[in-house]
Amino acid sequence: MVTLSRLHELKKRLDAHRPFPKEIIKNLDEWYKVELTYTSNAIEGNTLSRQETALVVEKGITVEGKSIVEHLEAINHAKAWDYIMSLKNKTKKNITERTIRDIHSLILRDIDTTNAGRYRNVPVRIAGSSVVMPNALKVPDLMKELIDWLHNTNNDIIDVALRAHYTFVSIHPFTDGNGRTARLLMNLILMQAGYPPAIIRKEDRKVYINSIEKGQLSGDLSDYIPLMFLAVERSVLIYLESLEPKEIIEKSDALLKIGELAKMTEETVPTIRFWTNEGLLRVKKYSPGGYQLYHQDMIHRVKQIRTLQSEKRLTIEELKKVIV
């Protein structure tokens, strides 16, 4: 599981390379412009592929068989990205309701001119969801509260960015374009703090939407926060892969097979497997051959479990309640 301390350590590695080489930053900025446009629009149902999005954004080429709206969604998101890039050297105190309205206005330009940049005055429901969004009359006050909180909170900036995104989509201030605007707002906050923008992948769409809905229905963000931590980690590693020799990345971020994790923690493979099955350890991914692969953070997790067992005699069920 990716933790805040893990992200902070990666940020330290990233900061050690500042100022970044201009040619690398130019390349990354261009890549993110297309990738974020593709993924953010795909989450909302846009059917342009990654390659088609690049053609529309970079070349201005129309794609046969795709609607005008889908083309405009790509063009508009790219312009909104350019806009937040112009603000990344400022601070979160410079983000205002006007900033958010401007982002949204770009997102819906020539798609819904009437509602672009304007808070909704009608009730909204999310298709397939039982979540009830706030009354339209409350939206202005809720948005003011969000901005006041953003300006005054001293929480960790990653937490601030993720909760700003979550709070924004829960207010749902616009009739359409809320998700894209929320992700751009989150990434503006991250970039102002020196982090790369986080990418929520198309393949994570269902998990992403469900994690937000779970929070909205119960206040439980236990699915949402880890998913977003992974998105932040993914982006920092993309930067580091461009800035550090390949062998450094591979050494510090290599995933561990179950036997390697057992050896490094002096535990048995059956013990690691049992703790995994009980949910105390998390598998990062599976190899093409189906082998479980663990993040190196699980080394600390194994030691934490063993310490709690030996010092406090906690049962498996008790461990599940205290393991972070």
Describe the structure.
The chain is an all-alpha fold and 324 residues long. It has helices at 4-15, 22-43, 50-59, 68-85, 97-107, 139-152, 157-171, 178-192, 205-218, 224-243, 246-253, 258-265, 269-277, 297-312, 316-322, and strands at residues 256-257, 285-286, 292-294. The chain has two domains: 4-243, Fic-like fold, CATH 1.10.3290; 254-322, Multidrug-efflux Transporter Regulator, Chain: A, Domain 2 (Orthogonal Bundle). It has 15 helices and three strands. α1 packs parallel to α10 (224-243). The mean pLDDT is 92.
The CATH superfamily of the largest domain is identified as Fido-like domain
**DSSP, total strands:** 3
* Radius of gyration, whole Å: 21 Å
Listing every helix as H and every strand as E from the N terminus to the C terminus, the arrangement reads HHHHHHHHHHHEHHEEHH
Q: How far is the first residue's CA from the last residue's CA? A: 9 Å
Q: Which architecture of the largest domain does the CATH hierarchy give at level 2?
A: Orthogonal Bundle
**Protein structure class:** mainly alpha
Q: Which fold name is given in CATH as the topology of the largest domain?
A: Fic-like fold
What value does the average pLDDT take? 92
Strand order of the largest sheet: 1-3-2
Strand percentage: under 5%
Task: Tell me the number of helical segments per DSSP (H or I, 4 or more residues long).
Answer: 15
Give the CA-based shape: globular
Major sheet size, sense and barrel closure: 3 strands, antiparallel
Number of domains: 2
CATH class of the largest domain: Mainly Alpha
